[in-house]
Amino acid sequence: MGFIESASEYMKRWFNKNDVICLSQCIDLITETCYKELALRKAISMLAGTLTDTEFRTYEKNIEVKKNIYYAFNVSPNLNSNKYDFCFKLINKLIREQEVLVVLINGQFFIADSFNKQIYALRDYTFYNIEIDNYKLTDTLQMKDVFYLRLNDERIASLINSINNNYSRIFALAQNSYVQSKLRKVIVNFDSTFNMKDKGENELQTLINNLIKPFVEGDRNVLTLPKGLSLENIDNKNNNSSTVADMKEAGKEIFENTILIFNIPLDLVYGSKAELKEQKNYYMTNAYKPFATMIETEINRKQYSARQFREGTYLKLDLNTSEYINTLEHADGLDKMFRIGFSHNYLRKRLGEQELQEEWANRGYVTKNYMDIEGGEKVNE
């Protein structure tokens, strides 16, 4: 006859069964975290890649120029980073930490690895304890002296918090799992020669306390039991009933829900060719453009005065440059653009080609059916 009916409550007290997290729960938690992290990295990679492909165009009094600020944002922000390094770190910190600080040192732009800030209502925030690549700045900087980006998106903040919390839970689970793996798991059996009525519950509890519990916890390697009692070992196997297919399906759902937080179309992530153009337009408008606008606005309000901006001195992120254009596929469209005034050099620049150093290449031409041909043929009245 089994001993479970009489001793199960005793065993629960000593081995704290209700607090032991089974392996299937651990696997589910790790799966959720991995797929969320995978989706997060995919989103960061896509946004950072698009920002890298975007040209930061600079203007002085509405004339495009390429001076130091242009070189810094399009080629080398600082002596240790190229544009891709800078853009990836910027987007990564902005999303994961919900804020990022860029400081100007000797004409070069650096992203702070860590910093503290003091918030004021009616004057500039101040930033101190700024650290860049293990170098700590001694200066306290004001808001007007830095580029400070803050991401006020509760959905993304909630996602980051859930991932961080999952990492903490996984670490705790790993500790519990290690402890539990060291415990012996047994069933106590008794036969008719062991009379519980004569022994009494107190004697049984003493027996479990002094003999069985130390043996199960590993304090003793040898166990001598009274006549009529025996232990049956329970193999510590994974009883997870989830199949690989179930895990993949659950992971796919987690991945897709995470990606959608960033307004990135799933077809674009998976590389589906169905309505790919429309998906790209949606991505540029709803996923990438808010980040681009945030960056562009912060640079303009700190790099240029209000007067300079009004007079046409500013920086603009050209979102058109982030898209690859196949010359042959878009020949008709380019021809139509040329007819309505876009110059040869503008179109060559859009194609990533070298501009022609000819005056005529900067002229715009318009076909007569698109314009009032004043000075040319007279319009019949």
List the helices and strands and how they pair.
Blueprint: H1 4-15, H2 23-53, E1 55-60, E2 63-65, H3 68-74, H4 83-97, E3 99-105, E4 108-111, E5 114-118, E6 126-132, E7 135-136, E8 141-142, E9 146-150, H5 154-181, E10 186-190, H6 196-216, E11 229-233, H7 244-261, H8 266-270, H9 276-303, H10 306-310, E12 314-318, H11 331-339, H12 344-350
Antiparallel strand pairs: 1-2, 1-12, 3-4, 3-9, 5-6, 6-7, 6-8, 10-11
Helix pairs in contact: 2-4, 2-5, 2-7
What does this structure look like?
The protein is an alpha+beta fold and 381 residues long. Helix content is 49%, strand content 15%. It has helices at 4-15, 23-53, 68-74, 83-97, 154-181, 196-216, 244-261, 266-270, 276-303, 306-310, 331-339, 344-350, and strands at residues 55-60, 63-65, 99-105, 108-111, 114-118, 126-132, 135-136, 141-142, 146-150, 186-190, 229-233, 314-318. The strands form 4 sheets. Strands 5, 6, 7 and 8 form a 4-stranded antiparallel sheet that branches. Strands 2-1-12 form a 3-stranded antiparallel sheet. Strands 4-3-9 form a 3-stranded antiparallel sheet. Strand 5 and strand 6 form a beta hairpin. Helix 2 packs across helix 4. Mean pLDDT is 78; it is low at 1-22, 237-242 and 375-381.
